[in-house]
Amino acid sequence: MQLIYQLGICGRSYDIVDHQRSSADVWEMGPKLLNCITVAVLLAFLVSTVNTCPKNCHCTDRNGLKTVQCTSRDLEKIPANIPEDTVSLQLASNRIIRIPSQAFKGLRRLQDLDISNNAIEVVEEGAFLGMSEGLRALDLSNNQLKGVPRETFARLHAKINLAGNPWHCECALQEVLRELQLDPETVNQVNCQTAVREEYAGKPVIQVLDSGINFCSFQRKTTDVAMFITMFGWFTMVIAYVVYYVRQNREDARRHMEYLKALPNSPRDSKDSDTISTVL
After folding, report:
1. How far apart are CA 104 and CA 107, in angstroms?
2. Nearest to 162 by CA among 135, 176, 183, 133
3. What is the C-alpha end-to-end distance of the chain, expressed in Å?
4. Nearest to 88 by CA among 158, 162, 167, 171
């Protein structure tokens, strides 16, 4: 409202300068005209900021719903300056490798996010923080994800597509899947490329979990076995050292006794021996 009011004053000031054209009026209206120019520049900046579209992307606005189209643009990272009123963001078929923390901060009106068919290997914890709970669809299919932090999808209620990634099935992935809602149309395409047990490699994650398999129990058993092996190894080393130490001491004692026996008799002992012989 203040900007509109100021623009109204600007219009009246311009009319006065334009029609009366007296130097006194022009001098008197100078500060107001300067304010008008400042307001106009500020207004233009605000308008340009609102309408900014990321570089190499195409933005459309239909019925107040803004779509940012960045598909197949050879992008290597999430673009900056995404308009805050974006409803649909399309980033499919690029070369994005990493989704950093808070990459989509401020996009509270976003409903559809497509990052499929990239080369994403890492999704940092907090990558989707700052997005609205109104997000309806998140597509991360056909990337290079093997695992994600447990809190990656916290507070998201969107249907998430994770198909076509080389997942490593373990306890951490199992905990992540418990916290999100997989897209029912692609849920059977979320496969274990590798797993803590080789027999589950190549099978759908949900199918394995539904069969009663608990990857976390495998991890605990593996940890327990590893601790037992480590403790047994240390115990064996201690016993071996004690046995070696005792044997080495015995050998040293034996050699010392043999050395003493091998020493020649002392002169005094020889003299005493001769005296005893003479007496006899």
Report:
1. 6
2. 183
3. 141
4. 158
Which CATH number does 58-213 carry?
3.80.10.10
Helix (H) or strand (E) holding 139: strand 137-139
Cα(16)–Cα(128) distance, rounded to whole angstroms? 54
pTM: 0.63
Q: Where are the domains of the chain?
A: 2-50, 58-213, 218-256
- The answer to whether residues 115 and 96 touch, using CB atoms and an 8 Å cutoff, is yes
Beta strands in 173-256, from DSSP E residues, in sequence order: 181-182, 192-195
Distance CA 21, CA 14 (A): 10
Q: How far apart are CA 47 and CA 272, in angstroms?
A: 123
The model's pLDDT over 199-256, given as tens digits with 9 standing for 90+, comes to: 999 999 999 999 989 999 865 444 444 455 566 566 677 777 777 777 777 777 777 7
Which conformational region is residue 181 in: left (phi greater than 0), alpha (psi within -120 to 50 degrees), or beta? beta
pLDDT tens, residue by residue, 69-122: 999 999 999 999 999 999 999 999 999 999 999 999 999 999 999 999 999 999
